[in-house]
Amino acid sequence: MTRFLCLIPFALIASEALAQSAHEHDACARDVARFCRAHMNDGDQAVLACLQQNRQRISRACEKVMAEHGQ
User: What is the DSSP letter of 36?
Assistant: First the structure.
């Protein structure tokens, strides 16, 4: 029982990280589909470069996520 109780904090941290990641993905999904559709199959770095090239046109939410990750 003690072992199970020790795992609960780790599960909560992991689920919070996954939720944040999903939120970040959602923040830029529309911008990726709108401005970077041609690069979607080229990998994350190509999509990131495309978003950076279109920085003036992307949504505030996506801009915020990029800034939070130093992009």
Answer: -
